[in-house]
Design a protein that fits this description.
It is built from 5 helices and 2 strands; from the N terminus they run αααααββ. The protein is an alpha+beta fold and about 110 residues long. The model has no long low-confidence stretch (mean pLDDT about 85). This is Helix-turn-helix transcriptional regulator. InterPro entries: Cro/C1-type_HTH (IPR001387), Lambda_DNA-bd_dom_sf (IPR010982).
Length: about 110
């Protein structure tokens, strides 16, 4: 079954009053958050023109760890997130609302003088 067909089937079931089990809904939210973080790290890293290896060196991590973060294969700890933000010269912003997750890195302002 194709993804688009699966999505249509899921949406139809939800519209008919089917309630997704809590553990499935929770897992879906965790995946969304992990994917949002992965995209934010990748976007900021490429904005800076860094390779995964260069970011890893800046953050005191391994290239494999950066790859796992960008691949949504790991759930980083707060200290690791702090290292990433410093290495990316940015503030990490996470907004969690019902069904809406936003993860962004906001570049630090640099003094022109």
């Amino acid at each position: 079954m194709s993804h688009s067909r699966w999505k249509t089937l899921r949406e139809r079931k939800l519209a008919e009053g089917f309630a997704e089990p809590d553990d499935v809904a929770e897992a879906r939210q965790e995946i969304r958050l992990s994917m949002a973080l992965a995209q934010a790290v990748y976007t900021r890293r490429t904005e800076l023109g860094l390779t995964q290896a260069e970011l890893a060196t800046r953050a005191g991590l391994t290239q494999a760890k950066i790859s796992r973060i960008e691949g949504s294969d790991t759930v980083p700890t707060l200290p690791l997130l702090s290292k990433l933000a410093r290495a990316l010269n940015a503030s990490l912003n996470i907004a969690l609302d019902d069904g809406d997750t936003q993860v962004t890195f906001t570049a630090h302002k640099t003094d022109a003088a």
